[in-house]
Amino acid sequence: SQNQCLILEYLRLVLFGCSAAAQVKTSRETKGQFLSVNMAFSVGVMSAMYLTKGITGAHLNPAVTLSFCVLGQVPWGRLLPYCLSQLLGAYVASGLVYLVYYDAIMAFSGGVLTVYGPNETASIFATYPSEYMSLGGSFLDQVMGTGMLMLCILCLGEKRNTPAPSELIPAIVAVIVLGISMSMSANCGAAINPARDLGPRLFTLTAGWGTEVFTCYNYWFWVPLVAPLIGGVLGSCMYLIFIHWHLPDHDPPENLPTISTLSEKMETFMFLISEICEKIHILFFI
Predict the structure, then answer these.
(1) Membrane-spanning regions, if any (predicted)?
(2) Can you tell me the mean pLDDT for 196-221?
(3) Where does the pLDDT of residue 144 fall: very low under 50, low under 70, confident under 90, or very high at 90 and above?
(4) Which of 89, 115, 156, 274 could be disulfide-bonded to 122 (CB atoms 3.0-4.6 Å)?
């Protein structure tokens, strides 16, 4: 079913990304760097899209699903099932990452699972703001990141513009996610995805990190839940207003010939010039 595929696509996405985060964190960056996590999440996006795009559309993100519903590309009845399936997939994937890296996490943290401090491990799973970030700055960060994501992906299938080949869209989306992660993750971790953040956060709540994962940083957890939804819709509206509504009609009028070669264009141009000259001659000299 579609819901099973949604769970599977999120398993791949979060498994790649959070596994890389666990490896980098617990090795103290001796077995990878921050870029490793960004690249791993991007590979997870690409593989999940190739795996399930033909069945679910591979939204991978409740903000994307909501935006497509607003645009009329996805029925509203699919919004809640899609989001719940994405959330469940992220939760299960976080549990698998925890099992695989359990020994490394315990060795790194000394058996104390915390959100704060040099040996914190909660950021392996969910995103948290840098200490210098204000609430307003965090919200804007997530709105901007998700808005950029929608602006970039909506044009990929636009036939009236320069559409990407369908078989390359997963790879292109992965590069887009990589670019956003590399340029906009210092502030808040570039969640830009409510399910990617809430699913792992719920897992850490139940796996021993406790309620601190929700109460820390003045109850910051709601920012990566709400801001991406708003950012996705805003980005979609900007695409409609500034791009989509200004594109020419895809199909030329039936009464105009289709001109495909340079020679045909020149012949048509010269014919029109001759017709204009003839009309001018008739008008002024006859």
Answers:
(1) 34-52, 88-112, 132-156, 168-192, 219-242
(2) 96
(3) very high
(4) 115
Alpha-carbon distance of 190 to 61, in angstroms, equals 13
pLDDT at 286 over 70: no
CA nearest neighbour of 204 among 99, 91, 61: 91
45 and 22 in one domain?
A: yes
Whether the pLDDT of residue 189 is over 50: the answer is yes
Average pLDDT, stretch 97-126?
Answer: 97
Same domain assignment for residues 267 and 205: no
Does one domain contain both 269 and 231?
A: no
Range of the domain at 156: 2-246
| Residues 130, 79 within the same domain | yes
Q: Residue 172 maps to which CATH number?
A: 1.20.1080.10
